[in-house]
From TrEMBL, chain A:
Keyword 4Fe-4S among UniProt keywords: no
The species this protein was found in: Haloarcula japonica (strain ATCC 49778 / DSM 6131 / JCM 7785 / NBRC 101032 / NCIMB 13157 / TR-1)
This protein's name: Propanoyl-CoA C-acyltransferase
Domain spans labelled Thiolase C-terminal: 241-385
Keywords: Isoprene biosynthesis
Record lineage: Archaea, Methanobacteriati, Methanobacteriota, Stenosarchaea group, Halobacteria
Amino acid sequence: MQDVYVVGAAQSDFGAFPEESYRSLFATALEHALDSVDGQLDRTDIDEAFLGTLGVGGRQLGLSAPSVTEYAGLDGTSATHIENACAAGGSALRQAVQSIRAGMADVALAGGVEIMTDMSGDRTRYWLGVSGETEWERMAGTTFAGVYAQMADAHMGEYGTTREQLSTVAVKNHRNGAKNPHAHLRFECSLEDAVNGTVVADPLNLYDCCPTSDGAGAAILASREVAKELTDDPVRITGSGHASSRVGLFQRPSLTSIPASQGAAKEAYDDAGISAEDVDFAEVHDCFSIAELLAYEDLGFCAPGEAGTYIESGATEPDGERPVNLSGGLKSKGHPIGATGIGQAVEVFKQLRGEAGDRQADGLERGLTHNVGGSGGAVAVHVYEGGWA
Amino acid sequence: MGAYLSVPAWWRNLDGRYRLVVGECQECGGYTFPAEGACVECNAIDALTPTEPEGTGTVVAQTIIESGAPPEFTTLLDAEGAIGVVLVELDEGVRVPGMLTDCDPHDIGRGDRVTAVVRRIYEQEGITRYGTKFRPD
């Protein structure tokens, strides 16, 4: 089995861009990703492309992968769309890893794109709910904010997690994202702001929710042989994990954890030959504040029920024992569904190479990305290390 | 169009909509709602026997939707100002999602007892769709 290296990775700005299309955003991300490769790599060297997108916003387009790759100069290259709701990007990355490990490709592209801000409110309300359990959960009146609110309610009730602990996620991630030039919401917020936000789905308020964004990401993966020719500063993907679970929360055994996160983490840790304590930093799927707290527990960063006190201790701040969401996370950087999982890989790539600018953290050797689809129907976890195998 | 639920898709599950019919697994004895697909407890296939529960249970998680309800419920949210949505663990030991009714949702929380009642859920394409909501005991 071939070792897999990330030789280039970049994202477009995340935000609201009425002047851009899903194709132009992807082309921008790919250009920047090619530019980020240390050596000379031509786009025609890409053997295989996987594109994560829910369906290009609410358009539900067929052939979305070749539509963007042809625009970006990859006409003729194998291109396949991967759909796993908000985990589409992480799932595309998984496919790219597998294609190189299997020896089918020497260079593979994992991309992601979404356009979410250009539709009327009426149409947006219809398509945003497509990734949940649509027949029962949705018909009980919940969209994603409601389902995560129920998880927050259960976590607060079972473990005593507090309003302030939830809001600390927003305060931390906005502080980090304010330093990220590609972030959608580049403002800081106080704990008081975050506690007193307008209620969306009680107990979650506006500050507990990530925005919907336009954006794209691209990660270029290569075999060891190719990577050796391209860089002296390699980032290796040492672990890949992927799991699924019941799409509807009401059918799962626990309301306070995401089984697919636990399953994907275990596979990724086993694959990398590490355990949770070996992870120096992580980009986790904080679509809602409670989701970041659940991730701490499901990934094994702290014990079940202790995520509130864990974040309160400062452990996941940039100068803490295990920084989480140095990019600003979904909360501040933004959440263009299919691009999110690739955006996470971009941040880990930059941090491990010391290229994260004002938000660079010190002493990082091993990073993790955690990308959740829906409220936990599918999860992708990857582990990255600097240096050659 | 997004998460549109067609009339046949609603109609084929009327036992679950009106009476919360659950599936009792002939392999492990666990319950699955709705009564179709693999058993949520043991993944057994073709093992669910439809069973009608009492319709009584306990709230295990709650939210109060104040904005961003699914579009089918926009009119209801405008009229009510807030919609209480709960997960109820029925006394048979299976969880179902549903809306609260006949109460101020702010008065209801985890641990409260509720009973299933048939109510109008929403109207689409001129057809009123009925289903189950939960009323506090």
